[in-house]
Specification:
Elements: E1 2-7, H1 22-30, E2 40-43, E3 47-49, H2 55-62, E4 71-73, E5 102-106, H3 108-118, H4 124-127, E6 130-134, E7 141-143, E8 146-152, E9 162-168, E10 171-176, H5 184-197, E11 203-207, H6 224-235, E12 249-254, E13 269-271, E14 274-277, E15 304-306
Parallel strand pairs: 3-4, 4-5, 5-6, 10-11, 11-12
Antiparallel strand pairs: 1-2, 1-15, 2-3, 7-8, 8-9, 9-10, 12-13, 13-14
Length: 307
Amino acid sequence: MKILYLGTGAAEGVPAVFCNCDTCREARRRGEKEFHSRSQVLIDGELSVDFPPDAYYHSLRFGADLSAVRYLLVTHSHMDHFYAHDFILRGYKYSSPLPTPLHIFGNEEVKRVFDECTRREMRPDVLENIRFSVVRPFEPFSFGDYTAVALKAQHSRTECALLYLVEKCGKCYLHLTDTGRIPRESLDYLGAYLRERGRRADLVSFDCTFLFFGAGEVSRHHGTARLRGHARGVSAPRHRGGEHPLGDHALFPQRRAPVGEPPPRGGGIFRGGGPRRLLRRDLRGNCKGDTPPRFEGELQGRHSVEI
């Protein structure tokens, strides 16, 4: 699997849409290379995890061919992760003929948002080429060459937000955003599921919205202080009989903390139980901060991981 990070920002992005702070002004001054759009990951050019309002921008900036996307895993219904209005354009006179349907997988609230957002303008002939499947936690499902299983996230009080484990040809990608503390129920299921299949996660993407700021027990997002504990947990011996099955390569792509501070020690790529190196192309997902920014470039759209 080839995983490409197209969007790594929080809901408002950087520079934020209505913000004029020092950070956002500096990001605008430095130009597009410092912009952070909303969250989207593309796998093998055909599987998208989330579809934000910036998906069209991603296709222009990074050359992503959205007509080739056959499958869409939606984590939850928030606008920055699922912008359903665009799907009215997937057919009719708005696109060249698309030989394969788009399969969308999401929870019941995602389906309601899809119906609500497309009700006025969706043509029946376009809708015929879009298939929606409601996904429930802890129930594996297959599509194309992939098998996926959804896990419960700690993110929303109004819906069951989801995290995803995606498997293809014996390789596993674990997508853990958006979420705060990962529910114990999800961790226990995931550990048992992977051990039963003799697998471990080859790549883990963590929510790192708060960067090095603390996040409370009921927070909807993560920071690196907690993530260092999770990273140790996913690669240290925690289960009787050997190594924890959850992976040896983790990225922290989504961030919202001030960009005027250097990344903390340990906030980057983890391999084999500890930090080997920090991401030089640091990801900053939000502008919150008082100090002038100190940019290092970014990973978004310029970094792919092959597993």
